[in-house]
Amino acid sequence: MVFSEHRVNLGKITIRGVCKRMRFGSKFFGDRFYRIFEVVPKYLKMPSFLASDYIYLFFLVIMSGIILLVSDEMEILAHVLAIALLSLGAIAIVKFDLTHPYFWYSAFFFLYSTSYAILYSRGHYYSYRIVEFRHLGYNKEALVYCWIALVVFLLIVSPHRHAKLSGADALSVFRYKSLRAIKTSIAFVNIVVVYATLVVYSSQITKRVFNTTLVGTLIVNFGECVPILYVLLFYCMSQKKGKPAYFALLISCLPLCVLGFAIGERDLYLRVILMFVITAFSLDIIKRKHFIIIFPFGILLMALSVVFKYFFISRTTTIRLSSVQDIVYWFLDSDFTSAGVNMQILTSHPEYRAAFQGRGFVHVFTRLFFIPENYVNHGTWFTETFAPGSAFGYGFTIVGFGYVELGVFGVILIMAILALIIRFLYRKMWSNIYMYLLYIFSIPLYIYVIRSSLKVLLISLIVHAIPIVIISFLFNRLAALKMFESED
User: Fold this and answer.
1) DSSP assignment, residue 163?
2) Would you tell me the crossing angle of helices 48-70 and 140-157 to the nearest 10 degrees?
3) C-alpha–C-alpha distance, residues 7 and 431, integer Å
4) Are strands 9-10 and 13-14 parallel, antiparallel or unpaired?
5) What is 289-350 written as a DSSP string?
6) What does the alpha-carbon distance between residue 429 and residue 450 come to, in Å, rounded to a whole number?
């Protein structure tokens, strides 16, 4: 394979063209630099196009690192630019493939890492409580740790893209003669959800109170599993001959989305929407050209989720979206500032760097089997330390988890664990329907974990993912035995 046949293209710009325009003194340094892209693949024993992607990634790492290194402490936009360059560059490497971790993880990691910095640079400040309320400023160190975390993730995951196969070839192990099993399950779930929604609307109870009820406990704990049934139905419809009834599928998802809206649990409906969009892209129902509609809609939806978060309880809204600036502000402040704020707080108190001495990594794995002695919930610890007496939780941050455990080494270790897991899931995505479902399920989970801890990821994968795979397998076997055949 010759590299010249697999150039890294950015519109009409190619690496060869860029390199030819790079001058060093009177010599064409660019031509010499370009030889790296021809020689390195032979020594690495990998396809030249993949080697070129890695070299392009290294180039992005170096450039973003230099920007971060040479910028002053309060050149906030330069710090944001460094993270943006690395994130957008990674997305460009995989050619805007929405199913690749480079796309969805880099995009959301950028938002969670930099939203506070962006708002702070625009004059929006944040206060937090540690004994008394104090003004939270800004320090560059927080974004440096985020940059290290993203670099580790990208290097381990790899820019290699797995070609999408046709449904018949990729997921042929999952053959349904009928959709009745899935439809019955979704109908049962919707009955419970509609009942819960009516209870919330009539009694105007808060999310905290709702979670203490039996129905609330079941829905909140198993709400992560329900959307996978929608993905199963979506896939089966896409493989069915004739015109798929996608509108009926959307109607079947409304009860869960309305309930999430009613109790202020945005994860319930945002999870469904995100999984639908990625599933549609993976099945070639949504194309890249549709991003121009999807992205503005997503920004508006996140802003509206703040405006109407407690509408069912208070029956009124106190936030107004009167301009584009308001929409952008509430989009960034909707959910994306939490991780950045928490990281700013932690780095503002260096006495907490490596304070747990790695015990959290051990406890996370032993917690799967029993509660270890001196077990610490990082989210609870954070709230009790920096907001004692608060009735609300402040979440945490996955980068902060590594920071309080082992400092910079902990950040590298936690991101390496995350990268290895998602790398495995992505590579196995098209092997069968079960791995496909598991990968789609893990995407919103990974995004949520950016503002949480490692415990949430492992417990959710084991407690929720394994039952999903088992249920999918049982549906498949029952369909194969013709127990659910119909004329659908």
Assistant:
1) P
2) 170
3) 28
4) antiparallel
5) GGHHHHHHHHHHHHHHHHHTTTHHHHSS------SHHHHHHHHHHHSSHHHHHHHHHHHT-G
6) 22
Q: How far, CA to CA in Å, does 139 sit from each of 114, 120, 348, 416?
A: 12, 11, 7, 25
In contact, 396 and 445? CB cutoff 8 Å: no
pLDDT tens, N- to C-terminus, the chain (488 residues):
333 333 333 333 344 444 444 433 434 444 444 454 444 444 444 555 556 788 889 999 999 999 999 999 889 999 999 999 999 999 999 989 999 999 999 999 999 999 999 988 888 766 554 433 456 788 899 999 999 999 999 999 999 887 665 544 444 445 554 567 777 778 887 887 787 777 766 666 666 666 666 666 666 666 667 788 888 888 777 776 666 667 777 888 888 887 777 777 778 788 888 998 999 898 888 888 888 899 989 888 888 887 777 676 666 666 667 777 778 888 888 788 889 989 999 998 889 998 888 888 887 777 666 666 667 788 888 888 887 777 667 788 999 999 999 999 999 999 999 999 999 999 988 887 788 888 998 999 999 999 888 888 887 777 777 776 777 677 666 666 654 454 44
What backbone phi and psi angles, to 5 degrees, belong to 10?
A: -125, 85
pTM: 0.83
Q: What is the domain partition of the chain in residue ranges? A: 1-45
Distance CA 142, CA 117 (A): 10
